[in-house]
């Protein structure tokens, strides 16, 4: 049995589906007690996991999550800020309302800031901890007609993460970023289906449009478990000298090194 995280407490936001579920399952399989947040409960309760119902777009949710974790477990060792989604409509700047911009920034940036702010005092007191913020390759390579508001929020997340790593390094806390490319998740499959409907095409054609825009040399979407393995490594003692870094896991889609 892998006991890498035995005795540790981890939080995974958006942890009931897709990448978040894969991360939560991987950390709990390695011995961590994993607190999972989402708006709806998971279909099944996994051993070493505890579900907290929460809507992270509500400003007060972060304090409630932090209180429940610290009251019940007394510590927090790892925070994986995974919750996020491309909420804005496609079509470029003219289709995006103020509300569209606000919604993407609320979920993909401000919710992360609030969660970290609520839990960091406990990490600072412990003089140890790991924060991993899940970003996206689209923050570096935005698709103007698909991800404009989403990409901008995630780009802000990247800058914030680097600044936070610089501030917290002397306090024994590491902060890193994981930037997936195209990943086979329920949200991504729904996104592809919506493109197919609006363009009156097949899902295969819609998928090809995305892959052509992103240009993935490996020619396929990533599996959620592949992202989870990288996150688990960065959270582990094997990565104890890594902080302030952004790891792209995108099948080679990033055009630069």
UniProtKB/TrEMBL annotation:
Coiled coil: none
Superkingdom, taxonomy of origin: Bacteria
Signal peptide: none
Family: Belongs to the short-chain dehydrogenases/reductases (SDR) family.
Cited PANTHER family: 3-OXOACYL-(ACYL-CARRIER-PROTEIN) REDUCTASE, NADPH-DEPENDENT REDUCTASE BACG
Official protein name in the record: Short-chain dehydrogenase
Organism (species): Flavobacterium album
């Amino acid at each position: 049995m892998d006991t890498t995280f035995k005795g540790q407490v981890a939080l995974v936001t958006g942890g009931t589906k897709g990448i978040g579920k894969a991360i939560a399952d991987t950390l709990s399989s390695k011995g961590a007690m994993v607190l999972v947040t989402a708006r709806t409960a998971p279909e099944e309760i996994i051993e070493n996991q505890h579900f907290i119902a929460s809507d992270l777009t509500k400003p007060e949710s972060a304090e409630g999550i932090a209180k429940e974790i610290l009251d019940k477990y007394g510590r927090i060792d790892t925070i994986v800020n995974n919750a996020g989604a491309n909420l804005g409509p496609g079509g470029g700047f003219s289709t995006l309302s103020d509300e569209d911009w606000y919604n993407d920034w609320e979920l993909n940036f401000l919710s992360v800031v609030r969660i970290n702010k609520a839990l960091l005092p406990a990490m600072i007191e412990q003089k140890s901890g790991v924060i991993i913020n899940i970003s996206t390759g689209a923050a570096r390579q935005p698709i103007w007609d698909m991800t404009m508001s989403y990409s901008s929020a995630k780009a802000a997340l990247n800058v914030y993460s680097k600044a936070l790593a610089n501030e917290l390094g002397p306090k024994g806390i590491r902060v890193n970023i994981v930037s997936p490319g195209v990943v086979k998740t329920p949200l991504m499959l729904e996104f592809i289906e919506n493109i197919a409907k609006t363009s009156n095409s097949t899902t295969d054609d819609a998928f090809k449009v995305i892959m052509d825009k992103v240009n993935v040399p490996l020619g396929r979407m990533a599996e959620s478990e592949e992202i989870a393995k990288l996150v688990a490594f960065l959270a582990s003692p094997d990565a104890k000298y890594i902080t302030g870094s952004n790891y792209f896991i995108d099948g080679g889609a990033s055009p630069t090194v």
